[in-house]
Design brief:
The protein is an alpha+beta fold and 127 residues long. The protein is built from 1 helix and 6 strands, in the order E-E-E-E-E-E-H. It has one helix at residues 81-99, and strands at residues 2-4, 14-19, 22-27, 34-37, 48-52, 55-59. Strand 2 (14-19) and strand 3 (22-27) form a beta hairpin.
């Protein structure tokens, strides 16, 4: 996620608190201006935030592999059906590559609807 920050506030006053199912962003000493539940759980030890120029970059690591998020924030936004299908295909190819490291799936294509990578043929292994 990319969050534009007010230029008049010193960078050291911004904070971001990432919890498994919740995110909070604000300025220290003030109520948070982003305080929302996440659409799916994240790995808090692999999720982080950085400040670059006047933009906060928030990187959230999905806890459940192979899951497509319409939006990281619960109830906000939504993926176009075409984009959601492309993401599903990308996740399925990523799963095939992880399960078969000696093979090249870079030119593989799906025809029709792509199966759900979380459940297809026994689901994703979380090694």
């Amino acid at each position: 996620m990319y969050i534009d920050l007010p230029q008049t506030v010193p960078k050291k006053l911004f904070y971001c608190k990432i919890q498994s199912k919740h995110i909070e962003v604000g300025i220290k000493g003030n109520p948070p201006y982003l305080n929302h539940d996440l659409s799916s759980p994240v790995k808090t030890d692999s999720s982080f935030w950085t400040l670059e120029d006047e933009v906060m970059h928030v990187t959230l690591q999905k806890r459940d592999k192979g899951q497509t998020w319409a939006s990281p924030i619960l109830g906000q936004g939504g993926l176009d059906p075409y984009v959601a299908d492309l993401e599903q295909k990308r996740l399925m190819l990523q799963r095939f590559q992880e399960e078969n490291p000696g093979f090249d799936f870079s030119q593989a294509q799906f025809t029709g609807t792509c199966p759900d990578p979380r459940t297809f043929m026994g689901g994703i292994r979380n090694d």
